[in-house]
Amino acid sequence: MAALSRQEQHRQIHARQAARRRAMQALYSWQLTGDHPKNILASFREDEEHANADAEYFREILMGVTSKAAALDETLAPVVGRPLQQLDPIEHALLWVGTWELSERLEVPYRVVINEAVGMAKKYGAEQSHRFINGVLDTLARQLRSAERAAPRRTSG
Length: 157
Fold this sequence. Notes:
Elements: H1 6-33, H2 37-46, H3 55-67, H4 69-80, H5 89-104, H6 110-124, H7 129-144, H8 146-150
Helix pairs in contact: 1-2, 1-3, 1-5, 2-3, 3-5, 4-5, 4-7, 5-6, 5-7, 6-7
């Protein structure tokens, strides 16, 4: 199997980023409306921006998080430092996505999970929410990805 071209790798990275962003938006909607995740999924699929996203990854995040929201909240509760009901819906959605990826998608490096969530928090969250998201997900990465964190970092070159 031939290696992916740089252009194809770049396209896949952007499609994953779009999937995470759309999942955050869908989870925000889910929190506010209480609509069934399948209805939200259908609604998001109709949006023209959906063509830029990794549609399967978006579906996996949305359905994975909504089906495991209680368990994800149990994982988050001891680390958040405040009642989860006090979380801003954007922060909660970002923490769900990050926690789900840390626990379910071990092929995604923990640094990527944290960087993606922090980047979205800077763009969509409250003024200092990126620091909060970074702290929570870094703590969870220590718990959920201890072996990966202990491994020596590979350098490119």
